[in-house]
Amino acid sequence: MTALPWTRGHSTRRHHRAAIGFLAPFLVAFALFYVLPIGYAVYQSFLKIEREGTFGRAHDVWGGLSQYAEVVHDSDFWDSLVNVGQFFLVSVPLQLVLALVFALLLDSPVLRAHRFFRLALFAPYAVPGVIAALMWGFLYSPGTTPIPGIADRFDLLGPDLVMVAIASVVNWVYTGYNMLIIYSALTAIPAEVIEAATVDGAGQVRIAWSIKIPHVTPALVLTGVFSIIGTLQLFNEPQIFRTISSAVSSTYTPNMVVYATSSIPNYHLAAAYSVVLALITCALSFVFLKATQRRAFQ
Amino acid sequence: MRTARRRRTGAAVALVSTALLLTAACGSSDDSDGGGGSADAGSCQPAGKPVTLTFTSWVPGMQATVDLWNKNNPDIQVDYKEVVGGNQGTYQAYSNQIKAGKTPDVGMIEFDNLPSFRLQDGLTNVGGCQPVQDAEGKYVDWAISQTSFGEDGAVYGIPMDIGPMAIYYRKDLFDKAGIPVPTTWDEYYDAAKKIKAEGGVIGDFPTDQPAWFTSLAWQNGARWFSVDDDSWTVSLDDDATQQVADYWQKLIDEDLVDTIPGLGDPQWKALDSGQEWSIIGAAWTTKLLESSAPKTAGKWAVAPMPQWTAGDNAAGNWGGSTAVVFKDSKYPYEASEFATWAFSNLDALALNNKNGGQYPATTEGQEQLPALTEGLPYYGDQKVWEVFAQAAAGVDPSFQWGPTMTDTYAALADGIGKAVNGQGTLDDALTAAQAKTIETMKAQSLTVSD
Description:
The complex is a heterodimer. Chain A is mostly helical.
């Protein structure tokens, strides 16, 4: 048989099959490790426990929105959201400003030994959050700090300052990470643009202000979104600080509320908290993107 | 175009984070009836064939005890796995394993968490198993009775070790200052004031150890939980507990005690540097103190806990654990045979004490273990174990644990944290923990009488 005419329908079908073949491994893993657990958690959040007698066997029964009613009425959960809200204000603006300044310095000809500083500033991110919290906790505890003057003068683990103490750990770890995101955006600026500005007589500060910063605004927005998500999910650092400070409660952040609830164990309520927290995270990220995109993505 | 793509990236980031969050909340498979093979009295029979059991605990060096058993019992081999401490993750793992029907045969659970696993229907009642009935009499009464939950003849856990309490004090400093060792809580208060005048502190009110506070309340005869007619009564704020709370509130208010986290570097440093002159600890604190405050070796001594009524011998118990046979075990007879041997046989107890620092839950072990009859150089050659044997006999047998202690402790610790930071009192902590506990128990569909 000679070659058939190359029909459009035929090619589309073949393309479809190939696409499915390529996508299958991803889709299977995605379904297994993302869709299924999310679906399971949502399902769990609609159940409640029933039992008979003092130590009777527990049965999961349909509870409708009863767990969500609990969430709405739970002051610990909403207090923890207020906590991370305050934490965001204490931590993120400073963190992003520092990240931007460091990135601009790395990108400018003013600084020498770029590679060294890039690595040095990024290095804390390679330290696991738990280890970082332990290290800083050691420095802040009056009993163990090598700088007694600081711990004596400021009660860094007391109710007034403990949030600043935790924020300093988080900033130490994530400033370098955010710096790298911004820095890679800076390196994408075409050299001609900078050259043109130099020829026009712009100094480094002027170039940074009028060209570089506007150019990396999308990257800044991205780091902002990461920070919103990261702050809402704050867990390791306050959990470690709980062992050295009586001012960090077991329900200090939303994720700690989820953790404490699941260790009761009350999986259904923990699932409901998680779903609500996820929705809040989505909503805040979305609002942030909406609010910033006009400026950022013209 | 560029805008749209960027936006989608942002949304994808949010979505992925959502997914990460939700996976964290997922436990394990749905609960089925797990076979329902309960081994109640009568049904606990030997398998009649060689079996292999699995056993997990976090007692250091437990492998040596298991090796000794395996050498002598070719037909009941035990496969041992060391895990992290219960509250560090193993309890969570047990809960998941119970849901999934994949528990080990024998596991370690501390006394205060036993009701929680009973509530999850994860434990076998081994009260009907011959090896348990044979060994029952060896255990300190209150220890074994804590595992029955008021059910006649029931045993839901075999006591591994207990934590009777006493006061560890710097003998040299007390002697030098001419302060007598307090035998009552009134004397403790007086001593605290004198020590403060000397520039030291009598001790610490550990802010992160709600179980420590619980055992002080236990000493005073508190009854936090009780069960009648299928309904629970919760009284964390009963008179006995309030008396203890008010007492410590007074010491905190007058700045007579430290309020730092307990059992960690800050406290050890305070003890080793001579800032704190004493610590109210359990039997297992003996070795911990020795290794954590090495500079002050030879200067310590141990005395019975201060009393609320002069001349009493009431002690608190802090910690201690049980070996449970999980519901999914197919060999409850063999499992209980191993567990009773491992925690009542003198050779086994000697190993547990040497390697794991466990203080035995059997009177025979407390009195006869060679290691428990000699003086300890760290404590100026004092025979400290005699103090603990006496304390073990003075623990109130009627104290009961609640079914959601993890949550009760968390609420209590949060309240204590607020109290030492001047945002409330210990009494407020009790009120809050009481309310939170009842709420949590009701969420577990338990009947709680008001």
